[in-house]
Amino acid sequence: MNATASIELPELNTMLSEQYLSGIVIVNREYAEVTLNKDGLKQEKYRRKLAEKRNPLSIEQGPHFRYRFPSNDVFVTQFYEQQKKLPEKDQIKVETENRSDMVAVFIQWGLFILMFVGLFLLMRRMTGAGGPGGQIFNIGKSRAALFDADNKVRITFNDVAGLDEAKEEIKEIVDFLKNPTKFTRLGGKIPKGALLVGPPGTGKTLLAKAVAGEAGVPFFTLSGSDFVEMFVGVGAARVRDLFKQAKEKAPCIVFIDEIDAIGRSRGRGQVPGANDERENTLNSLLVEMDGFATDSGVIILAATNRPDVLDSALMRPGRFDRQISIDKPDIMGREAIFKVHLAPLLLNEDVEARKLAAQTPGFAGAEIANVCNEAALIAARRDKDKVDMQDFQDAVDRVIGGLEKKNKIISPEEKRIVAYHEAGHAVAGWYLEHADPLVKVSIVPRGVAALGYAQYLPKEQFLYTTEQFIDEMCMTFGGRAAEEIVFSRISTGALSDLERITKMAYGMVSIYGMNPRLGNISYYDSKQSEYSFNKPYSEETARMIDEEVRKLIEHAYERTKVILSEKREQLEIIAQELLTKEILFQNDLERLIGKRPFAQETTYQAYINDSNAKAAKASNEAKSEIIIDLEKK
Description:
Layout: E1 5-6, H1 9-17, E2 21-27, E3 31-36, H2 38-41, H3 44-51, E4 65-68, H4 72-83, E5 94-97, H5 102-127, E6 145-147, H6 164-178, H7 181-184, E7 193-197, H8 204-215, E8 219-223, H9 234-249, E9 252-257, H10 277-290, E10 298-304, H11 312-315, E11 322-325, H12 331-342, H13 353-358, H14 365-381, H15 389-401, H16 412-430, E12 438-442, E13 453-456, H17 466-476, H18 478-487, H19 495-511, H20 539-566, H21 568-581, E14 583-585, H22 586-593, H23 603-632
Helix pairs in contact: 6-8, 9-10, 12-14, 14-15, 16-17, 16-18, 16-21, 17-19, 17-20, 18-20, 19-20
């Protein structure tokens, strides 16, 4: 369409009176399109106005001007009154047209379509659906992923190391699904459910994946949070739909990860009169697991690291008949886990899984996997062809202490304080009988705020005595005591040490009953939430606990100061060597200040000696059998 110029009513009347108009068309009763005749187009003022709006070559084509009137009826009346003044032959014919504005129609319908598509995508996102059945009406459908013969998990029990007892328990469930008559011929029943309990990273989900890979039956897996939804009743509907699908595929296994998301104790923190969607979901789960119309063939596996918050009705036999504890592995378990994660790496001859297991006490399976991966990355960063033991030691330091900050600017005075602080830890622990043996002491900054650290090798033990606790507190006080002895002032570098000491002292007094004044009393309640404000003792007892904790800490601090004052010469030697080398190992301390005065085997030495003794015993038994066979012959 040609561009038209706007005009006002006086100009239109002038065009009409001077007979420059060829025609007028009223469009949608909103505006008038005006077309000039040949005489009008010859007028310079009109041609100049049209030249601003359109190509000069298209000036001859109409309509040329547009007049937007305020009222159609008023305009028509005034225009006809004006035309009456002209001769009849010169009067202009007025036409009326109704046109549709395609742009406006597109905008109107486009907005509607966009709103519809947006609503559709929103509901699709809320339902989490894909493919058929992903509509709003499927919001109560289960989100469980199904693994069967067509979609099989590749992980098997061979990929799970360090969890031998837990694997035996789980294998029984898998064996029952493969050969049920082996267990039922004597009248026994397979457990309906097993709850995997343990700290994070110990392999609960990995064990469940291995069950999925070994079972050979349909395996449903989902998280406890998948039941939680903003709409009332959706969680319970999803539970019912999950068990409906599971019964159709029976025999099968259902695995619910992080079940504490929906299995928390009912009534805890509940507002009176409020509707708790999580409790409705839990009630539905309890009914489906062991309700009135329970069907066999569906075995429930669940995992959590917070068994203390689970509802007692969920934990009872008949729902979860077995609670399988998956703790952090011991040295033998860590060795087996290292062997699994070391298998795909290109290793140097000096790498031994047994030594690595001894250097990583308290590590869970996920942390061991992280150490192996970090070692491979460090070796690649150094352009090595194989991963050696030094790379693994650096990886352990990286996981324990954080990233090494080589470019961190530290003043010489601060570095000297850090050196004496870490030397205080090392010397105090060296001359304390029940302290853990030292592995390494460093003043290289690591992590966010650590300017140095001392690494020890704790024993693999589960019971601790009062003497061990006190020696551990004195060793931890070594840094603060060294600062006070050498510089006659203290710094903020002992923050983490004081936190650890305070927690240990309160544990001895209020949890383990190791204080003679309070006696054999424990105020620890495993069922109580850690955020509870209710204390199971009076204000007087609280004051007594604080007093005994303060006495215990002051006694440990004074004892540490006495030890370091007596060993001031050794403290100076270690600190000066740290300032020179920055990192010292156990053999360096033996070279500088002599061997540790206590004959004590480390866990690694005890493990090696035990392994050698078992190997020698097995060899002797084999030799004896050979001799007996020869004598018989």
